[in-house]
Write a structure and sequence with these properties.
Blueprint: H1 7-29, H2 33-36, H3 49-62, H4 70-86, H5 88-109, H6 119-127, H7 133-147, H8 153-156
């Protein structure tokens, strides 16, 4: 087996491959962070990265929980993105809906929705469009997409299904210490 005649070429090739691999990893993890300054492990398949990131912000504004990291909201949005990949009409609904929301934010605050600093201002924008098909689609997805993540259940005091343990009657169905 012959080796390259120049160790400088080998080192250069290694550096190139290492840099390329780092760049690919960064592009995979960072695309939605371009809009919000946050990175998500999820990569949008159907929606634009800016739309995906804005949907994560919208999700947090619809169901705000300070103890929940953005990655859980991104997981819920990923369900919307997967549906949009399967059905072009779903993708069009998300893209046009976010376009309308961004336009409303730009008209009012001079910047896209995800860049509006005040949560109260973003919520006001959402309230103005809560009767739209776009808003209802996102909100409806979040009910299941966010709250059905088992990692989050302890935060909400939910112990999981009870039918396989004999039901809630003898398992503290009235234990709502977490509510206080």
């Amino acid at each position: 087996m012959t080796r390259s005649t120049s160790s400088a070429n080998d080192l250069s090739r290694r550096r190139f491959l290492k840099s390329a691999a780092s760049g690919i990893i960064a592009m995979t993890v960072m695309p939605s962070g371009l809009v919000t300054g946050r990175a998500f492990a999820q990569m949008p398949q159907a929606t634009e990265p800016e739309t995906f990131a804005s949907l994560v912000q919208m999700s947090r504004d619809c169901y705000p929980h300070d103890k929940i990291e953005d990655r859980f909201y991104a997981t819920a949005v990923q369900i919307l993105d997967e549906a949009a990949r399967a059905l072009p009409a779903e993708r069009d609904l998300l893209e046009s809906g976010m376009g309308s929301l961004n336009q409303a934010a730009a008209d009012r605050f001079g910047k896209p929705y995800a860049k509006v600093e005040s949560e109260a201002d973003r919520v006001e924008l959402l309230k103005a469009m809560e009767d739209t098909a776009f808003f209802q689609k996102v909100r409806g997805n979040l009910v299941v997409g966010l709250y059905n993540q088992k990692e989050l259940w302890p935060i909400f005091g939910y112990e999981g299904a009870s039918y396989d343990k004999g039901g809630y009657l003898e398992r503290g169905f009235d234990d709502i210490d977490w509510l206080a």
